[in-house]
Amino acid sequence: MEVDRAAVWNDCLEILRKEVDDQNFTTWFKPIVPLKAADNVLTIQVPSQFFYEWLEENYVPVLKKAVHAVLGPNGKLEYSVIVDSGNRQSPPVTVSYPNGLKSKQGQSSNGPVSSGEYTPFTYRVLNPQNVNSRLNPTYTFDTFVEGDCNRLARSAGLAVAKKPGITSFNPLMLYGGVGVGKTHLVQAIGNEIRSKLPEKVVLYVDQNDFTNQFLNALQNNQIQDFQNFYLQVDLLILDDVQFLAGREKTQEMFFHIFNQLHQTGKQIIMTSDCPPRDLKGFQERLLSRFKWGLTADLQEPDFETKLAIIHNKMESDGIQIPTEVAEYLAFSVDTNLRDMEGVLNSLLFHATLLKKEIDLELAREVMKNIVKEIQSDVSVDFIQKTVADYFKIDAEAMKSKVKKREIVIPRQVAMYLCKRFTQLTLQLIGENFGGRDHSTVIHALESVEDMMKAEPSFKNQVDELYKKLKTRVGSSSN
Ligand code: ADP
Ligand code: MG
């Protein structure tokens, strides 16, 4: 028996209005169109698959309550969903879910049925050429220096750039600390795809943009536009995903966008400051999806990579930088590459605008303003003595020519700590160790770094010494 569908839906809306706040009411219930009401079944049309899933996730209890109140305890709800076919040429089609409200466990078993009569919702199709991809054009593979620290991530990125959505690296999840090159690398992938596959819609957003866009869309009742836009993206890059922690609604939205894109073979790339297993404040189902594709880490750049980055950058700006200055910077800027970028820019400024020669003195001057150094008055003597005591060797051996391993390692550790605790150049450090030259010091610093990576027990020893000296810096006497 057919009844007045508009009246039935209006009665439902009256009940729903009391159950949800104004904003959600406008966003999720106003756009619904009643199609039919007959035999205890109300059929409503919703503008997208996403919309349907959102209602199912979030509003089943209130919808049930409303439908039961209006149609009686046997009242049921069915959906008619307008679905984007994913093809920009053909318009969206409509499908129905004949089983009505599916329960949380039991998914609707009948597949969607095509109809196609009602399409009151507008759907704007994106032209890839007009989409602002938000990419920085200087972040390319050409300007990204390859090193041990980023090799796996870079190759995975190249593979994805060649065949977005087709490799099993979907999603591609890159993680690593501050300034290790995550943003540069993911944007290089985006730039590469834009230039080689111009028909693809590429979008780079960081978590902050994504969240703000989503909240704005919610507030201005433009959720449809928001998701229609995202669902047409071929390559979605979401940077710094760790900041989605605790943002439940935004995660929910991202979850749906992720699923839809993934299902239709679109590529998703994300970055994070830690591996997915360590992310806190995320829904488990989202975390498990992060692990579907490939997870690769970027590590702190080693000395060689830093040197290459310095030379690359200076050369691309037409500046020659003396090797000793480059080496000095590669060792001294050990916070992160973003600080390095600051130091280099400042050096460029001095060299090009102030016509100063780039030498060690200028480099040291510039560093002081950008990198917070350990303010220290620990002397080389004191470091040598502390290290010698720790390893139970004679302090004089630090300056000797002895090449036995029991001596060489403490000597290298002492050089390493001198680099960290004093303002001395590599050359001066060398002079304090029996007149060794600066390349010997560089070799020592590299060995210590390598050994610290390879042997946790050795790293513990160096850390312990570091702490001893650090306490010393805190107290005034020396
Ligand atoms: P993250 O996003 O991991 O914090 P960024 O991508 O912002 O790091 O990198 C910081 C700076 O270091 C940027 O200027 C970037 O261009 C530069 N950089 C990082 N890694 C490399 C690399 N391998 N080659 C060249 N430049 C790099
Ligand atoms: Mg970044």
Textual characterization of the structure:
With 478 residues, the chain is of the alpha/beta class. The protein has four domains: 5-97, GMP Synthetase, Chain A, domain 3, CATH 3.30.300; 151-297, P-loop containing nucleotide triphosphate hydrolases (Rossmann fold, 3-Layer(aba) Sandwich), CATH 3.40.50.300; 303-368, Helicase, Ruva Protein, domain 3 (Orthogonal Bundle); 380-476, Chromosomal Replication Initiator Protein Dnaa, Chain: A (Orthogonal Bundle), CATH 1.10.1750. The chain is 50% helix and 11% strand. It has 19 helices and ten strands. It has helices spanning 5-19, 22-29, 49-58, 60-71, 151-162, 182-196, 207-219, 223-231, 248-263, 284-290, 303-316, 323-332, 337-352, 360-370, 380-390, 405-421, 426-432, 438-454, 456-474, and strands at 33-38, 41-46, 76-83, 93-97, 113-114, 172-175, 202-206, 235-239, 267-272, 294-297. Strands 1-2-3-4-5 form a five-stranded mixed beta sheet. Helix 1 crosses helix 4 (60-71) and helix 18 packs across helix 19. It is elongated and about 100 Å long.
Number of helices: 19
Tell me the quaternary state.
Answer: single chain
CATH topology of the largest domain: Rossmann fold
Number of domains: 4
Task: Report the mean per-residue pLDDT as an integer.
Answer: 85
The share of residues in helices is 40-55%
Specify the structural class. Answer: alpha/beta
- Per DSSP E runs of 2 or more residues, the count of β-strands stands at 10
Q: End-to-end distance, in Å? A: 95 Å
Examine the secondary-structure arrangement and name the CATH architecture of the largest domain: 3-Layer(aba) Sandwich
* Overall shape: elongated
H-E string = HHEEHHEEEHEHEHHEHEHEHHHHHHHHH
Task: Identify the bound ligands.
Answer: adenosine-5'-diphosphate, magnesium ion
* Portion in beta strands: 5-15%
**What is the name of the CATH superfamily of the largest domain?**
P-loop containing nucleotide triphosphate hydrolases
Our Rg estimate from Cα atoms comes to 31 Å
